[in-house]
Write a structure and sequence with these properties.
Pathway: Purine metabolism; IMP biosynthesis via de novo pathway; 5-amino-1-(5-phospho-D-ribosyl)imidazole-4-carboxylate from 5-amino-1-(5-phospho-D-ribosyl)imidazole (N5-CAIR route): step 1/2. About 25% of the residues lie in helices and about 30% in strands. The structure holds adenosine-5'-triphosphate and magnesium ion (MG) (2 copies).
């Protein structure tokens, strides 16, 4: 079959590759880490740095289409991919890589994030805290994930001892939310948009812990407005593939948190819980194929992440036959590291 190139070597790439194999494609992983868990289930692996344009060009020459599973792939070297189609369009990467750019873009399309201000100095931070108030969260504009690169500021004094990193930051007002949810859509090459049911997401220590579908009714009520924003974003970016937006459901409607130009942890429940998974639909979209039905395949679904040593006793997890266990094959369990997940379906 044809070869799909995947930039990034983690569990998202691994699950894209597994879905691609079902459709008869082979995958070629490009990643800077030698021990890629996506490469383990793929036909080819280029182990090279993001800025190695010669390696990127050789990789692309083997691929019919290229996609990415990691949102911090540097954009400039991607021109080395040349004429090979790259989906989603790299302008989605550019937008999502900087929290400030992303928020301005979303506001321009009618979305509503938490109040925010860029911070480049201690004086900026004091001004942002005075204008927006506390509590708030200070975040690095780039490269944060799983709550890394974030500082919670509960009261003005909390900022005093802060050793600010030498990189651009953003201060956000703390949102009092009823719940968190995500919009996960897939846009086909022909512009067809399919939405998955929106999971309600619970985070612990900045890391996704549990996603539940369907969301509570008061959360579900905010999904249509959130989907409209997501569709405008996808259309404006000329997006092809799976796109995820994270929201806070508030007493005042949905508040945008952030977007991910890729398949998403809060969509892992779709492997068993939707008629077509986010991974299969992403593959279909980037390969120019018609999209599959995204409807729920059960009455309800719960996906729980296995973080750190939670994946240790997998026979115990499997002793309940209702558990679908996914282990990512990572060698070392470190605190906060996503090792796998468990999905449970509730039947009608
Ligand atoms: P991801 O792994 O989802 O990319 P991230 O490091 O980009 O995570 P965020 O999504 O910005 O982090 O924040 C992680 C979590 O922290 C959110 O899901 C939410 O629970 C909480 N959080 C972040 N920003 C705010 C905010 N402004 N108000 C309230 N809670 C927030
Ligand atoms: Mg993020
Ligand atoms: Mg997030």
């Amino acid at each position: 079959g044809e070869t799909i190139g995947i930039l990034g070597g983690g569990q998202l790439g691994r699950m894209i590759a597994m879905a691609a194999a079902q459709l008869g494609y082979r995958c070629h992983i490009y990643a800077p880490e030698a021990d890629s868990i996506a490469a383990e289930v793929s036909a080819a692996f280029t182990h090279a740095q993001w800025h190695d344009t010669e390696a990127l060009a050789r990789f692309a020459a083997d691929c019919a289409v290229v996609t990415y599973e990691f949102e911090n792939v540097p954009v400039a070297p991607l021109s080395a991919i040349g004429d090979v189609p790259l989906h989603p369009h790299p302008r989605a990467l550019e937008t999502a890589q900087d929290r400030l750019t992303e928020k301005h873009f979303v506001v321009s399309l009618g979305g509503r994030p938490a109040p925010f201000a860029p911070v480049a100095s201690a004086a900026d931070l004091a001004a942002a805290m005075a204008g927006i108030g506390t509590p708030g969260i200070l975040k690095t504009r780039r490269e944060g994930y799983d709550g890394k690169g974030q500082w919670r500021i509960m009261e003005p004094g909390d900022a005093d001892g802060l050793d600010l990193p030498e990189q651009p930051l953003i201060y956000e007002g703390f949102v009092t939310f009823l719940a968190e949810f995500s919009v996960i859509l897939c846009r086909g090459a022909d512009g067809d948009i399919r939405y998955f049911d929106s999971p309600e997401n619970v985070h612990a220590g900045g890391i996704l812990s549990v996603s539940t579908v369907p969301a509570a009714p008061e959360v579900e009520a905010q999904v249509p407005a959130a989907r409209e924003l997501a569709a405008r974003i996808a259309e404006t970016l000329g997006y092809v593939g799976v796109l995820t937006l994270e929201f806070f459901a508030t007493g005042d409607g949905p508040v945008f948190n952030e977007m991910a130009p890729r398949v998403h942890n809060s969509g892992h429940w779709t492997i068993e819980g939707a008629l077509t998974s986010q991974f299969e639909n992403h593959v279909r979209a980037i390969c120019g194929l018609p999209l599959g039905d995204t409807r729920l395949a059960a009455k309800g679904v719960e996906m729980r992440n296995l973080i750190g040593d939670e994946a240790h006793d997998w026979p115990a997890i499997l002793s309940d036959p209702a558990n679908h266990l996914h282990l990512y094959g990572k060698a070392a369990a470190r605190p906060g590291r996503k090792m796998g997940h468990v999905t449970r379906l509730t039947l009608g």
